[in-house]
Amino acid sequence: MRKFLVPGALVLLFGGAQVAQAQVPSVVPSVKPSLYAGIALPTGDFKTGFNSGYTVGGALDLTLPASPVAFRGEGSYTSFDAQGGGEKFSDASGRVNIVLPMHMIVATPYVIGGVGYYHLTDDVDALGKFSQNKFGYNVGAGIDFPLGVMAARVEARYNHVSMDNGGAYTYVPITFGIRF
Questions:
Q1: How far apart are CA 20 and CA 31, in angstroms?
Q2: DSSP tag of 106
Q3: Which fold has domain 26-179?
Q4: How many CB atoms lie within 10 A of CB 114?
Q5: DSSP 68
Q6: pLDDT along the chain (180 residues), means of 10
Q7: What's phi and psi for 60, nearest 5 deg?
Q8: Percent of residues in the chain assigned helix, strand, coil, to nearest 5
Q9: What does the alpha-carbon distance between residue 100 and residue 98 come to, in Å, rounded to a whole number?
Q10: pLDDT in the model for residue 85
Q11: With contact defined as beta carbons under 8 Å apart, do 112 and 139 qualify?
Q12: Cα–Cα dist 20/114, whole Å
């Protein structure tokens, strides 16, 4: 009898949750805001001159009923200091992404990718500020954890913006966020 107790309890706990979800399909689109912050790691040629930086931002997640994908619009600010000091490189960006969630019982891992518009600023003490606007792309993965009516999110993404000089501005932010 005991050897059926634990498996039986697990089936009731996890299997019952899936049956309950299947019986009440959502017919209303869901829009959920989130805020996030984290470390930004320079990559490629960009990492030879800049230290790790930081990123902060906010997003709106749009989930449509019966759709296998979700959408995320977001805005962020990312900043890096030069390794020798005297220079700061930053971007203020807006991105539109497609999110492919892989729904599981407790957590929801996902892959994400999209395009963005990056306002890049290079602030060199001796020379002043230079800025330019560029399109770029991002790809990554993350995982959402439920926290009652909210959720926590951990995510890493590769961002790539091609520059006029033939180089690229690339970095990977690793962020922690709260979705409301």
A1: 22
A2: S
A3: Porin (2.40.160)
A4: 19
A5: S
A6: 45 40 66 97 95 98 93 98 93 98 90 98 87 97 93 97 93 97
A7: -125, 120
A8: 15, 65, 20
A9: 7
A10: 85
A11: yes
A12: 33
The whole-number pLDDT of residue 26 equals: 61
Beta strands 53-63 and 30-42, pairing class: antiparallel
The pLDDT of residue 108 is: 93
* Helix H or strand E segment including 18: helix 16-23
Q: Show the tokens assigned to 117.
A: 């518009």
Q: Tell me how far CA of residue 101 lies from CA of 18, 63, 71, 88, 112, in angstroms.
A: 16, 10, 10, 36, 9
CA 104 to chain centre: 19
The strand pairing partners of 88, in sequence order, are 81, 123
CA distance readout (Å), 139 to 41, 75, 97: 15, 15, 9
Query: Which helix H or strand E contains 5, and what residues bound it?
Result: helix 2-10
pLDDT recorded at residue 126: 73
**The predicted structure's pLDDT at residue 93:** 98
Specify the pairing of strand 150-162 against strand 128-147: antiparallel
Q: How far apart are CA 178 and CA 176, in angstroms?
A: 7
CB contact at 8 A, 89 and 82: yes
Q: For the chain, give every domain's residue range.
A: 26-179
